[in-house]
Write a structure and sequence with these properties.
Strand 5 and strand 6 form a beta hairpin. The protein has 13 helices and 23 strands. The chain is an alpha+beta fold. The strands form five sheets. The chain has a six-stranded antiparallel beta sheet. It is 40% helix and 24% strand.
Length: 600
């Protein structure tokens, strides 16, 4: 009886302790449930964001590579330098307009809506609505700078483009979105046009394109997408409040800017939580280092968790009553989360295996492509010849080769196929075989270049072409005959005067237009003279603050090396050494190839 009495008296304490213990466990499970829900949302949001990131990075990289010709091209820079002096010269403005129209015709339809050249004060010089490119230049929607009663060509200043322009957004190398009156979002990119000598800003290029050209964004009421420029930390896109575009992120959304990300288990991507006006937010982000953007996806959780949280508080009060039910629910939810994690692990294992196979195939492709190029430098009496190619990826679009025509003549070729990676590797291998075949019939540049162009126009895909520099060396007469189609101009160092000249040889790349002509320039060679061929990956290599390696820097290195009487191997080593130092810390974004020919 005594023992039973003790057990009876102790029962309330045991019961209370059990209730307290189960209550604590219930609270722990309660917290775990909502953490799991947040993790599931973070996984879903991250998956969506990664898809957008891949689309944006691919589209933006393609766009930036395509648009370089409109503001980095030396012809554009020269025209703007002239416009600064004689702004009313319509010929210069018409040349700029023609360049925009030709560029647009080469692009995929629907990717770009308008383009504009403005001076350094933001005053439009040329403004083209690409939707009207097929319309007559005398339509009432166009402003012209000449008498519309004459038949002279006129400079286009489309009202529809100028109406949505404001110099307030004139910031060099920036991209931001605008919401038009019809609720259409466009992306505007602004690039500076610099004077080649003084680096002074002579004007700007502005390109507009619809948002869907970057990625497809289907927004819901509970979602918001932000794009932030990683350098300026200003908003490129605000899907919820377009008026915040170009404003600093910490000014428009300080709670999002200062949110601390939680590092959970390996399977759960980092995410942050914040609160704005009683709205609970879940935040995930992805940085696109290649284009300098950070994508931030914000999900408003109230719709999903406010009700469950309120009911959860009631369940805590009745924990003992509903202990069985809530315990079962938590167990089922936990099992579901574990099952999802196992599925992700299995998927990651499959992806890893495929990546390993892909790396093996790419390595094999790399070795095959390297074997297309010379395995050693040619032994030519009285001359030193050295070439080197560095693809941006395992395989690339650059290519060089030497051909011995007879005992006294050699041909050197440097080619750059559109793009890089696998997209360029296949046309490169095809072009290597085509060049080897055609050169067996004729090694003269004036015959070889048109033949190659004609063949490539028939076999290449649209928007694929080959830039080619060709040099025929005559060791008996000590001269080189050079032709060029689309590559940077070859450099010629004259030892007797210690001067470096760019051999001005302008022509369309091969495969662009059938019937193109290619000029041949003959250069006499004396002891110490040097001819350098290089691809645009050398000239356009980027360094700090997106500065280009540039023509002048290459010219200076060749001049210094020539004055020091460096041999061909030393010249090519100095070029790559300075290029590596200039681009240290930056990813190589294009194939890089150099061929040096030096008269001993």
């Amino acid at each position: 009886m005594l023992n039973q009495s003790i057990r009876t008296r102790a029962f309330p304490f045991i019961f209370a302790a059990a209730c307290l213990l189960f209550g604590m466990l219930f609270m722990l499970f309660y917290t775990f449930v909502f953490t799991s829900i947040e993790q599931i949302f973070s996984q879903q949001s991250t998956a969506k964001l990664m898809t957008l990131s891949r689309e944006a990075e691919k589209s933006e990289s393609k766009f930036r590579n395509s648009v370089k010709i409109l503001y980095l091209n030396r012809s554009v820079q020269r025209l703007f330098a002239k416009v600064v002096i004689t702004r009313t010269d319509q010929a210069h403005l018409l040349d700029l307009q023609k360049m925009l129209e030709i560029w647009y015709k080469k692009q995929e339809n629907g990717l770009y809506s308008s383009a504009m050249y403005v001076d350094h004060n933001g005053i439009p010089l040329v403004a083209i609505d690409f939707s009207k490119t097929t319309s007559s230049s005398n339509t009432t929607d166009l402003l012209t700078t000449t008498d519309t009663n004459t038949s002279e060509p006129t400079v286009r200043l489309d009202q529809s483009v100028i109406a949505k322009w404001s110099p307030n957004y004139l910031r060099p190398n920036t991209t931001f979105t605008l919401l038009l009156e019809d609720n259409t979002r466009i992306i505007r990119s602004v690039y500076p046009i610099l004077d080649r000598k003084t680096k002074k800003n002579n004007g700007f290029l502005c390109i507009d394109r619809p948002l869907h050209s970057l990625f497809e964004w289907n927004e819901t009421k509970e979602e918001m997408l932000l794009i932030v420029d990683t350098k300026t930390r200003s908003l490129v896109l605000d899907s919820f409040s377009p008026e915040n575009v170009a404003q600093p992120l910490d000014k428009s959304y300080p709670q999002i800017a200062n949110a601390e990300y939680l590092m959970e288990e390996d399977e759960v991507p980092p995410y942050a939580k914040s609160q704005i006006n009683d709205k609970e937010l879940l935040i995930v982000s992805e940085t696109l280092s290649l284009i300098g953007w950070e994508l931030i996806h914000v999900t408003q959780l109230n719709k999903y968790i406010s009700g469950p949280k309120d009911r959860g508080r009631l369940l805590v009060v009745g924990a003992l009553v509903f202990l069985l039910v809530t315990g079962s629910a938590i167990y089922m939810l936990t099992r579901r989360v574990q099952a999802r994690s196992e599925q992700l692990e299995r998927a990651n294992s499959i992806v890893s295996e495929h990546n390993a196979l892909l790396e093996q195939e790419l390595q094999t492709a790399h070795e095959m492509q390297m074997r297309l190029m010379p395995q050693k430098n040619p032994d030519i009496e009285g001359y030193q010849v050295v070439g080197k190619c560095r693809p941006a990826t395992e395989v690339g679009g650059d290519f060089f080769q030497y051909f011995s025509v007879d005992q006294e003549k050699w041909v050197f070729a440097l080619a750059d196929v559109t793009g890089h990676g696998m997209q360029a590797a296949v046309p490169t291998m095809m072009f290597s075989g085509l060049l080897d075949t055609e050169i067996s019939y004729s090694a003269k540049p004036e015959m070889l270049m048109p033949k190659l162009n004609s063949r490539l126009c028939r076999v290449l895909e649209p928007r694929t072409f080959v830039c080619l520099s060709l040099g025929e060396l005559d060791t008996k007469e000590n001269k080189m005959r050079i032709s060029n189609g689309g590559c940077p101009y070859p450099y010629f160092y004259k030892a007797s005067s210690q001067s470096v000249d760019e051999l001005s040889l302008s022509a369309f790349p091969l495969g662009v237009r059938n019937g193109s002509t290619y000029e041949v320039l003959e250069v006499p060679l004396e002891s110490g003279d040097v001819v350098v061929f290089c691809s645009d990956g050398i000239i356009e290599a980027t360094g700090n603050e997106d500065e280009l390696f540039g023509f002048e820097r290459v010219e200076r290195i060749i001049s210094d090396a020539g004055a020091e009487e460096s041999d061909a191997e030393q010249i090519i080593d100095k070029l790559f050494s300075e290029l590596d130092a200039f681009s240290a810390g930056y990813e190589q974004d294009d194939d890089q190839t150099i061929v040096v020919v030096r008269a001993a």
